[in-house]
Amino acid sequence: MAKTIMVVDDSASLRQVVHIALKGAGYDVVEAADGQIALNKLDAQKVNLIVCDVNMPNMDGISFVRELKQKPSHKFTPVIMLTTESQEEKKREGQAAGAKAWVVKPFRPEVLLGAVQKLVLP
């Protein structure tokens, strides 16, 4: 059975690029335009990993990760932050919230897929 990955980003074009890369690698993909939408979708769906932007309207990525980690059902779901933010302080904030990896945009699909493969449990 294919693993399901959620892509959370307010950019539809970026979600599409990530979706195509993940689908091509054999993953099922669910999309959300911001953290709040993602949390609502997660109540109804099991995902194996989340790829999330930092800067989004309604609920930013770091707030989303903090909320996600409060849910017993998603406490151990790995999160990769995919963002234009490259400052160490933001990375530390993301890690403190529970993010497992940090990929800076623009990204190469193979770099993202490498991080996904390391974090998706068999």
TrEMBL record:
Keywords: Phosphoprotein. Pfam families: Response_reg. GO terms for biological process: phosphorelay signal transduction system. The keyword Phosphoprotein applies. The modification 4-aspartylphosphate is found at residue 53. It comes from the Bacteria. InterPro entries: Bact_response_regulator, CheY-like_superfamily, Sig_transdc_resp-reg_receiver. Residues 4-120 form the Response regulatory domain. This is Response regulator. It comes from Pseudoduganella ginsengisoli. The lineage of its organism: Bacteria, Pseudomonadati, Pseudomonadota, Betaproteobacteria, Burkholderiales.
